[in-house]
Amino acid sequence: MAVEQLPARNPAPPPTRVVDSGYALFEGNIVPFSQAQVSIGTHALNYGTACFEGIRGYWNSEQEQLYLLKLPEHYQRFLKSSRLLKMRLTQTVESLCEVTREIVRRDGYRSDVYVRPLAYKSSAIIKVDLHSPEDAIAIFAVPMGDYARTDGLRVTISSWRRISDNSIPARAKITGAYVNTALAAEDAHAAGYDDCLMLTEDGHIAEGSAANFFMLQGRTLTTPPVTDDILVGITRGAVMRLALDLDLELVERSVDRTEVYQADEAFLCGTGVQVAPIVEVDGRPIGSGSPGAVALSLQEAYFRAVRGNDPRYRHWCSPVYRITESR
Length: 327
Ligand SMILES: Cc1ncc(COP(=O)(O)O)c(C=O)c1O
Hints:
Layout: H1 2-5, E1 23-26, E2 29-32, H2 43-47, E3 50-52, E4 55-60, E5 65-69, H3 71-84, H4 93-107, E6 113-121, E7 135-143, E8 153-161, H5 178-190, E9 195-199, E10 205-208, E11 212-217, E12 220-223, H6 234-245, E13 249-252, H7 257-261, E14 265-270, E15 274-281, E16 284-285, H8 293-306, E17 317-319, H9 323-326
Parallel strand pairs: 8-9, 8-15, 12-13
Antiparallel strand pairs: 1-2, 1-7, 3-6, 4-5, 4-6, 5-17, 6-7, 9-10, 11-12, 11-14, 14-15, 15-16
Helix pairs in contact: 3-4
Bound molecules: pyridoxal-5'-phosphate.
């Protein structure tokens, strides 16, 4: 079996557990995390009627500053997702950014973090629709390091298809849709792979289980278009900017499965996985079978940018601490 032929490697990073400390925005107030609790009747818990974001914060020890990456962009997508679920939220992008900085400041983290905003149908009612339940917002943050390996992923093509725009739209980050991710990721991990690529119903590459996909052919970097059932990743946008600044050609088009097998390089990118080279797909080496030079350059450029160490991309980074507090 393909899995038994794989040589031993360092273990993948363990899952991040939510720590029961720090603060959360809950029912309009910032409260201790342990007090932010919902009823088992909550609509979102019963029917998956919530949407969320995942936002990373990077600690810069020289600057003693914690930078939240692309904070307004995440909240713009958050509000768009919420509108798809007919939520009537009154918060603005600016107010959500501000309260997020306030929560993380109160947490006092001096490490990399992950922020989880959640907008959910909060009423404890038994009725499956979108307009009957009330809407609510919660936000909390946890310390988080690497979430997936960044030294070369071995992936498989999932037998689960990516949810399509006319079933559950992938472009919104809807909690219920992550059953699709969990099914695919579970089977990939059980078979010994680090992750998987998911196909659209018509058989094109959509994305990884929770990350966007890029492949390199010569100097051309190709990624599936927004109409191929992807979450339009914030990291995808950042990588596209970095790629253009590295003088790569950029193409958004549908990608056949076997193009991936023949690509010079491939990688996944997302808030969680960051920029993670793919070295093998279903036992077939990609390029040389080790992380490619372009993927590694993009990874390096990304890590420099997100920690606030590249002035060209400093506007991607929202500082959490006021200068006097952080020193
Ligand atoms: C299904 C899916 N695709 C892609 C991504 C990447 O999106 P982003 O870069 O905005 O985190 C994510 C989130 O991490 C995701 O859950």
